[in-house]
Amino acid sequence: MADRLAVEPSKPAGRSPVAGQDASGRLVVRFHDGETMRGRSVGGIVRSGVVDVPAPPTRLVADWTREIATNLRLEPGDVEPLSLPRARMRWPDFRRCVQAASDWMGTLGLPDVLATGEIALMACRGARHHHDAAQYGGSVFCNLFLSEDRGLEVRFPMAGRRIALTRGTMLLFDTGQPHAVVPRGADRFDATDFASGRDRDQVFLTWELPIGDPRVAEVLGIVVDDVPPTGIEEEGLWWDGAPARLCPASGRLLRGRDPDPDQAIT
């Protein structure tokens, strides 16, 4: 059981005029629900907080470090899965962490939702600006960060939110909401900030939660089936009737054939 639940204040991220203009109307997610293609709005609300969770055991952290270095071989901007079954064998407080996350969700009016979602253990070495609507358009993400404070934050340029990452940071957000993991206060993703030798890896638990639960959609401001039906069968984030392109460094939405000044980033 978590010892405390707190809401973490966040700093404004600075909206792109283009992104802000389109967040309420023309930016939509199209996703398959069984055989049916559906459309929905992008939830403009990002929920964040901090819960008390114990530090993972030293042996487990060392195991994660080895796996990241030898199996995942993370490069700056990479986000990859770790083995959750293996971790659970070395993690006596795993259930306590899950309970803390569930208690926090309860404060949002979602007390039993995590039990219905798919859980995974992830690692990242920063993250370029991206969205996850192409693969998870019918879902939202709930994340519990397990690593110590390394001076990083999750930046949501469209939502105007910055959430500092510390052990126990909780996030609930729409998969269609562009986001990145960057140094605190940064407005761009820069691979050199995550160069080899800088200990900035983050490990977190993530739950994939279906927006078919109306409580989940409501808490993030998502409206389902508010998009006119079309013959388009491609899932993902759409803007002005075409798949949305996102600058991986700045998070800016790019129009049509606008040049991407950051396409050379590796």
Structure report:
The chain is α+β, with helices and mostly antiparallel strands and 266 residues long. It has a single domain, classed as Sandwich (Jelly Rolls). Helices cover 20% and strands 30% of the residues. It contains 6 helices and 17 strands. It has helices spanning 17-22, 58-72, 84-89, 94-107, 133-136, 214-220; strands spanning 5-6, 27-33, 36-41, 47-51, 79-82, 118-124, 127-130, 139-145, 152-156, 161-164, 169-174, 179-183, 202-210, 236-239, 242-243, 245-246, 253-254. The strands form 4 sheets. Strands 1-4-11-8-13-6-5 form a 7-stranded antiparallel beta sheet. The chain is globular.
How many strand elements? 17
Q: How many independent structural domains?
A: 1
Task: Calculate the mean pLDDT score and round it.
Answer: 86
Secondary-structure element string: EHEEEHEHHEEHEEEEEEHEEEE
List the helices and strands and how they pair.
Layout: E1 5-6, H1 17-22, E2 27-33, E3 36-41, E4 47-51, H2 58-72, E5 79-82, H3 84-89, H4 94-107, E6 118-124, E7 127-130, H5 133-136, E8 139-145, E9 152-156, E10 161-164, E11 169-174, E12 179-183, E13 202-210, H6 214-220, E14 236-239, E15 242-243, E16 245-246, E17 253-254
Antiparallel strand pairs: 1-4, 2-3, 2-14, 4-11, 5-6, 6-13, 7-12, 8-11, 8-13, 9-10, 9-12, 14-15, 16-17
